Amino acid sequence: MQRWWAGEAGAAGRAADVALAPAEGAFRVLTRLRNGAFDRGWMRSERVGIPDVSVGNVAVGGAGKTPVSAWIARRLLEWGRKPAIALRGYGEDEIQVHHELNPGVPVFRGARRVDAAREAQSAGCDAVVLDDAFQHRALARDLDLVLIAAESWDAHPRVLPRGPWREGVDALRRADLLVITRKSASAARAGEVAAELGRLLPEMPVAQIALRPAELVPLHGAAAMEVSALAGRRVLAVAALATPAPFVEHLRATGATVDPALYPDHHEFTAAEAEAIRARSAGGWMVMTHKDAVKLRALLPADAPAFVLHQRVEAGAGADLLDAALRRAIEEPTT
């Protein structure tokens, strides 16, 4: 799927491109019409009584919305606020990840983010971070952050269903601030993306964030280890992500010999699959993403050599712009 979406799937991919070109065109038109209806006030955006910050993107997965949303919630805690996370939630895994990343921050789920945000307000929260809400325009927000993965940036993207983007580049004009995230990409590559965005959207502020491997945490508890413990080991990389390549590259960068075990995004593992993963990793370690760990924890025994790769967020160029935008949104919300 990733190779085809990138236009690298050979003759079969070219045939699919031709077949799906009308569907892509229709999707672009429908998206434009819907956004135009909101822009002209024909469709209304509702407000809740507490400041809200949206963390979204224009591509399908891979930009780091969950760790960045959790990082923002921690920033708000540091500033003395009582934040909540609101998300649609395709399964309990996303909710559980947020609970584990920020045990003191409540999480509310709702197909309508307005309902989730109002639940947060009723629970006594004084700010809400919306995980993956850029396209959810029914809820007005005080700050619209759009994440762009440096690894997959494309100035001329292919849009669903022919490609991985939900909207075209023009949609970025709706954002208040763009945040370039990078996992396996270099700082130089992130700088190139920032420069290109500066040419396309000269008035748009841009910040950069790096998502780095922080530590290895045993799946069933116990003390965390440095990621350097992977050096020289044989590792089965377990990931059910829209864009798994950066996760695999992080593991390879430690000096481990990595065998990728990749599944579709939001995959619900079965007991049989968990046993197959364990058998495949015999003699080595299993290392998985946080999102997959919350699903596999109940399926793998306590003595399994399984670990979770935790990430940390490192603010880079433009961090002052991001910080200032967050403070304005929280301290001077739109009424």
Report on this model:
There is one protein chain. By secondary structure, this protein is α/β, with parallel strands linked by helices. It has 2 domains: 52-205 and 318-331, Rossmann fold (3-Layer(aba) Sandwich); 212-312, Rossmann fold. It is 36% helix and 21% strand. The chain contains 10 helices and 11 strands. The longest helix has 30 residues, at 10-39.
CATH homology superfamily of the largest domain: P-loop containing nucleotide triphosphate hydrolases
Tally of contiguous helical segments: 10
What is the helix content?
25-40%
Mean pLDDT: 92
CATH topology of the largest domain: Rossmann fold
Overall shape: it is: globular
CATH architecture of the largest domain: 3-Layer(aba) Sandwich
How is the largest sheet built, in terms of strand order?
3-2-4-1-5-6-7-11-10-8-9
Using DSSP, what is the number of strands?
A: 11
Whole-number total of structural domains: 2
Radius of gyration: 20 Å
Low-confidence stretches: none
How far apart the termini lie comes to 44 Å
Sheet/helix structural class: alpha/beta
